[in-house]
Amino acid sequence: MRRVLILVVVAAAAVAAVAAAFVLTRPDPSPMLQFDVTVPDDLRAVAVDAWDGFLGAHPARVDCIGPINMSAAWELDARAEYHPATATLVIRVPGTAPNLTNDLTHEFAHHVEFTCPEHEELRPAFLAAQGFPASAEWFTGDSWETTPSEHYAEATTEAVLGRRAHHGGILLSDGAVDAVRQWGSGS
Predict the structure, then answer these.
(1) How far apart (Å, rounded) are the C-alpha atoms in residues 95 and 57?
(2) How many helices (H) and strands (E) does the chain have?
(3) Residue 26 included in any domain
(4) Which terminus of the chain has fewer CB atoms gathered within 10 Å of its CB, N or C?
């Protein structure tokens, strides 16, 4: 009987050790912002603040937002761009902190489009609120200003920051910004 008790205690200790090791070694479930060597420290600080603000506006979606890589470029045709195949955001430097934050937030929104399958749940309500036909293709438009995806990224910037730089000719409805805000918060 004593031998059985010892085996039970040893087995329980082994199970507890394995469970503790699993908890301590599993990857951090929160989304990560990763930098390459081109990103200077001052831009890293701006990017981390922008990322934290973005995630704070999306508490219901944090579990589906994948890691994002970031690099900086002194020469870039656009202010910033997102490459979904590598989950990489490239931002043109230098820039003011408010403009960089605006552009980062816009590109973080594009990142969500590609890493969060739940994003498709938002699209019908967003399209309707922004006045697009239900049949509108999300990533297609005659120009940047007529592409639903770009409207979404601008609406996200406004929802997260309470403002946006208003580059380009995109006019947002209050309903579109509210749809983004509600989807991000899960309400």
Answers:
(1) 24
(2) 6, 4
(3) no
(4) N
Classify residue 8: in a domain, yes or no: no
Query: What does the pLDDT look like over 12-42, one tens digit per residue?
Result: 444 444 333 333 333 344 689 999 999 999 9
Return the axis-axis angle of helices 174-185 and 148-161, rounded to nearest 10°.
Answer: 70
CA atoms of 49 and 132, how far apart (whole Å): 33
| Residue environment code for 145-158, b if the CB has 16+ CB neighbours within 10 A, otherwise e | eebbbbbbbbbbbb
* Longest Cα–Cα distance in the chain: 81
Strand order in the sheet with 80-83: 33-35, 68-73, 88-92, 80-83
Q: How many domains does the chain have?
A: 1
- How many other β-carbons are positioned within 10 Å of the β-carbon of residue 13? 10
Residue with tokens 């990533």: 139
φ, ψ at 139 (rounded to 5°): -100, 15
CA distance 28 to 70: 19
- Residue range 92-150, pLDDT digits in tens: 999 989 999 999 999 999 999 999 999 999 999 999 999 999 999 999 989 988 899 99
Tell me, yes or no, whether 18 lies in a domain.
no
- The residue segments making up the domain with residue 108 are 33-185
117 cis-preceded (ω within 30 degrees of 0): no
Q: Is residue 144 part of a domain?
A: yes
